[in-house]
Design goal:
- The protein has 999 residues and is an alpha/beta fold.
- It is 24% helix and 25% strand.
- The strands form 7 sheets. A 9-stranded antiparallel sheet has the order 21-20-19-18-26-25-24-23-22, with no helix packed on it. Strands 1, 2, 3, 4, 5, 15, 16 and 17 form an 8-stranded mixed sheet that branches. Strands 6-7-8-9-10-11-12-14 form an 8-stranded mixed sheet.
- β20 and β21 form a beta hairpin.
- The longest helix has 27 residues.
- The radius of gyration is 36 Å and the shape is elongated.
Length: 999
């Protein structure tokens, strides 16, 4: 046994002379130096937590052979004494495009979109290209490699950053000397992102919700394909199968997108490593609950130049605040136990990486955690801990040599060794020439004081009578060069001094005058350099402003909670048979309406004096497009039934708060009208400060948006040659008929398959998310809200529905509904219309403001909606127009924006009226809610006060104060000479039915 161990030990030390290289070598001699290198008397960080104070690192052939305090050094070893120095594992960046040129967008592209792929043998969507291999387009970038090496990096993972499914990345050692050893792993990871490919003009997907739906379909198709159900080969799916065991890295680039990617991962049992954006701290609780591991950039925003008050006023508070808070992100992530690696991605300059990391450490990020995030963690995430990320025996000899503690601002990084090859960052043998000298140049005498840093000293030269002489000193490889201006101030001549530093007590060399004459010069040290202790107070980091929910203006300092509230003596609009009750009390408890009556009491309740005020149920907007991220339309196909707005609710949208200020508590967020069959909708309660998922109405009925008219046939798209079917109104009908028929056939195929006792031996039908959704309509499990204007199309839509034995639930807009109200009543469809919009495009020329009243009088359930971010804040006034134009009673008019939309959405058992047992979604108004003078004083959802007019006034004062303090911090940054950027005003996009994303 002892003999075996001895032989194993010897195997590390005996050069492998029998091994032969089969690569020809035309760059140098073939023989290689296989000697050992021993770096001794050095503080070694084997890992961030395993430290050897005075140890030896023994390397050979690019690997660590031994490390410890008592390492046996072979006789043929090169010994480097590093006393007083430190060694750390080189850093690792597992997210980059190093050496891979990303495709560029073609600004001269054909304005006509492409709908179907031209590729053969690959997946049907060109934004899904997992067959891409990063290594195939990789070219070693020497200049960028030098930048990374100077920053301490030794290994980098790189991939082509293009498309949704992007293919594999390759793991590269930043070895400038041996090209054959650079590729550590050809396929190191598999990559995804929420971005389209710049190499493709294929229109679908054009929205974020489309990308999420496409990914789901890909995973269903992958499972179906793996089980042998496909009759053809698919190179893209084959690549996904081949790479499914690799680390899966998903570039989300935003905190909410991280939650969305984690949602997909959970659905399909995946384990994404999420490449974040640096704003994770704003939703840290939700980020933590994903249980995901992250890759985090540290591209902190530069300070804004707010010296111009007008420009400063254009800035959003959220942007000012993010500048202030961003450096705390790493600290927050670490303190919440989230595992993450760091990346240089998105940095303008690689050298900013160290600057920003040190800034994060000043803001509380632990130094050991910082080192882990650059070494052991990225190595672990990429599954290569046995090769990189530490200095354990057998790992690559990737390490950096420093003058001291690596995250100290004064520390010098001397060398970065990669696979045993030394890259010099700063000369480790540089001599300390700092001090005071008497200088003689020919016959002239001077005084010279050298101070500053050892590696980059500065010189001040004066004449013997103490007059300063302009000079510049430079040191390189222990050579000193000094430019000295002539003593004669009238002349601009310089004398050039140069010399090799042998004796720091007596410098000497050659002096060349401006006329070319040469003399000897020497400098004799008269006094050593004395470090002057900086007595100035250590500059403290800026005050960090607390995160609010959401982290923008009018966010709350803490998440809001339910209250027990007793409204006393209110005028209560019940929307029930009791009608409008005066001088009535309403008790809210546990998120429900607990009691309605006179003289109610509850010792635990907050009492609200509502005398002279009006209490109503919350307004419900049946048709809204606010708070949607990255696209309200998925118009890449004529049907996008597979997409859902539930995926893309934007909980940060300020329009949510504005809706609450207008008394809106619930909205249906609808897909736009870019195609006949749009996407699935989301019913939300505006719980300001909560996450997107927490805003979703629990157990909500299923809805989908359909559309008729000009938009779906691309009449107003500005396309030179529109080609997507349908291009006519009659074609729209055929789209509906075709999809419903195919959905029935899809159902029959599954029924046949599931009824077969030998189904395991048969090929299964493909799961089709689009047809599944349409089938739910036929089976009366999902309701249609249909965008409509013209009577002929309204009748057509009802006829198609009746043909397939279901009914349309709601016609929205329905501006010619008054013409066919009797037919609508017979069909059983409701109407969600505008109060008085008309003539804003050709197909609404026949609209009239009496439309809602006429339909109401004929027994159609009528609601008024906004379809507009601005109008949704004053739907109470829209309801009043029903009184003006149609002689509807005030009580009935109020139902147009409360109970009736609740009925249309099939949620009137929970909301829409003031009734015991219903959700406490209430609004307290200071006046008759139909009055133009009415203001919402409190807006409550499930017993939580999400808007309070008094708190709103306090918020305005607090916001002004915070802006003032932040602007003060920014002005201070500019005054200190820090780099600044010009303030930018965010251009807000307000979605409407016809809004299209610009790709």
């Amino acid at each position: 046994m002892k003999k075996t161990i001895f032989l194993l030990f010897l195997s590390f030390f005996i050069p492998k002379i029998t091994a032969q290289e089969y690569f020809p070598n035309n760059e140098s001699v073939q023989n290689k130096n296989n000697n050992f290198t021993a770096l001794t008397n050095v503080k070694i960080f084997v890992t961030p937590t395993q430290i050897i104070e005075k140890g030896t690192l023994l390397i050979q052939n690019g690997k660590v052979i031994s490390v410890g305090a008592n390492v046996a050094i072979p006789k043929n070893a090169i010994i480097i004494n590093l006393e007083g120095k430190s060694i750390y594992p080189s850093f690792i960046d597992i997210y980059s495009n190093f050496g891979i040129e990303n495709p560029k967008s073609d600004n001269n592209f054909d304005r006509n979109p492409m709908y179907d792929t031209k590729r053969v043998g690959f997946y049907w969507n060109e934004h899904i290209k997992p067959e891409t291999e990063g290594l195939k387009s990789f070219k070693y970038d020497q200049t960028k490699a030098d930048e990374l090496l100077k920053a301490g990096f030794g290994v980098i993972e790189t991939h082509l950053q293009d498309g949704i499914a992007r293919g594999t990345g390759t793991l590269i050692a930043l070895n400038n000397f041996d090209s054959k050893s650079r590729v550590i792993l050809a396929k190191a990871s598999n990559h995804y992102a929420f971005t389209r490919s710049l190499n493709s003009k294929q229109s679908y997907p054009s929205s974020l919700m489309g990308m999420m739906a496409l990914l789901r379909q890909v995973y269903y198709d992958l499972d179906w394909y793996k089980k042998g159900n496909s009759p053809t080969k698919d190179a893209s799916l084959e690549a996904l199968i081949a790479n499914e065991k690799l680390p899966q890295i998903f570039a989300t680039e935003d905190k909410l997108n991280s939650l969305r990617a984690a949602k997909i991962a959970k659905e399909f049992g995946l384990n994404y490593i999420l490449k974040g954006s640096g704003n994770e701290f704003e939703r840290i609780d939700e980020i933590k609950r994903t249980n995901s591991k992250f890759i985090i950039p540290i591209n902190f925003p530069e300070a804004y130049d707010v010296s111009d008050p007008y420009q400063a006023n254009q800035m959003e508070l959220s942007d000012l605040r993010f500048w202030n808070q961003a450096p705390s992100n790493l600290k927050v992530l670490s303190e919440n136990g989230i595992t993450f690696a760091l990346t240089t991605d998105k940095l303008k300059k690689t050298e900013d990486f160290r600057t920003n990391l040190l800034k994060a450490i000043k803001f509380g990020f632990d130094k050991t955690k910082a080192l882990e995030s650059l070494t052991t963690i990225p190595a672990s995430l990429i599954g290569r801990s046995s090769e990189i990320g530490s200095l354990n025996v057998g790992t690559y000899a990737n390490f950096i040599i420093t003058s001291g503690e690596i995250f100290n601002e004064k520390t010098i990084l001397y060398e970065n060794w990669v696979q045993g090859n030394k890259f010099v960052v700063n000369d480790i043998n540089v001599k300390d020439i700092r001090g005071n000298y008497d200088v003689t140049i020919g016959n002239e005498s001077y005084k010279m004081k050298i101070d500053g840093e050892i590696a980059s000293p500065k010189a001040e030269i004066t004449t013997t009578d103490s007059k300063k002489v302009n000079s510049k000193l430079a040191i390189s490889n222990n050579w000193i060069n000094v430019l000295v201006k002539s003593k004669d101030t009238i002349k601009s001549n310089f004398t050039r001094l140069s010399g090799f530093i042998e004796n720091i007590e007596n410098l000497s060399g050659k002096a060349v005058l401006s006329n070319g004459n040469e003399f000897k010069w020497n400098a004799k040290k008269t006094a050593p350099f004395v470090i002057v202790k900086d007595t100035a107070a250590v500059e403290k980091p800026n005050k960090i402003f607390p995160v609010t929910f959401p982290n923008r203006a009018y966010g709350s300092n803490a998440k809001l909670t339910q209250q027990t509230i007793l409204f006393k003596n209110a005028t209560v609009w019940t929307n029930e048979k009791e009608g409008i009750l005066t001088e009535t009390d309403v008790l809210v408890k546990n998120g429900k309406i607990a009691s309605i009556g006179k003289n109610l009491s509850d010792a635990t309740a907050i009492s609200v004096d509502a005398k002279g005020k009006h209490l109503t149920s919350g307004i419900i907007d049946e048709h809204s497009h606010i708070a949607i991220s990255n696209g309200v339309n998925e118009g890449g196909h004529n049907s996008s039934a597979e997409v859902t707005i539930q995926d893309v609710v934007n909980s940060e949208d300020i329009n949510i708060y504005r809706d609450l200020a207008g008394g809106v508590t619930t909205s249906q967020l609808l897909h736009g009208s870019a195609n006949p069959i749009g996407g699935r909708s989301a019913i939300v309660k505006w719980k300001w400060g909560e996450s997107p998922d927490e805003m979703l109405y629990k157990n909500q009925p299923k809805f989908i948006k359909f559309a008729l008219g000009e938009n779906v046939k691309q009449s107003n798209w500005g396309i030179d040659n529109p080609t997507r079917f349908p291009q006519t109104r009659m074609g729209v009908e055929q789209v509906f008929t075709d999809y419903f028929q195919r959905a029935k056939e899809y159902e029959n195929a599954w029924k046949t398959y599931n009824s077969n006792p030998k189904k395991d031996k048969n090929k299964a039908p493909r799961i089709d998310l689009e047809l599944q959704t349409i089938l739910e309509i036929i089976n009366k499990e999902r309701f249609i809200t249909c965008h409509s204007y013209v009577q002929s199309e309204i009748l057509m839509m009802m006829n198609v529905a009746e043909k397939f034995n279901f009914r349309v639930n709601t016609f929205t807009h329905i501006l010619e509904g008054y013409k066919v109200a009797d037919k609508m009543k017979l069909h059983g469809v409701g109407a969600s219309t505008f109060s008085d919009w008309w003539a804003y495009k050709f197909e609404v020329n026949d609209a009239i403001p009496y439309n809602g009243g006429i339909m109401h009088d004929l027994g159609v359930v009528v609601a008024y909606n906004s379809d507009d971010a601005e109008m949704s804040r004053r739907l109470n006034q829209e309801a009043a127009k029903a009184v003006k134009y149609s002689n509807v009673s005030e009580e009935e008019a109020w139902k147009f924006v409360t109970l009736n939309p609740a009925k249309l959405l099939h949620i009137d058992d929970k909301v829409g009226s003031v009734k015991v047992g219903k959700d406490a979604d209430l609004v307290l108004w200071n006046n008759n809610p139909l009055s133009i003078y009415a203001k919402a004083e409190k807006t409550i959802i499930e017993g939580v006060v999400y808007f309070d007019i008094q708190k709103d006034e306090q918020n305005r004062v607090a916001i002004a104060k915070e802006r003032s303090e932040l602007i003060g911090q920014l002005l201070n940054e500019k005054n200190k000479g820090m780099t600044t950027q010009e303030p930018k005003k965010k251009e807000k996009i307000h979605y409407h039915c016809d809004t299209l994303e610009q790709n």
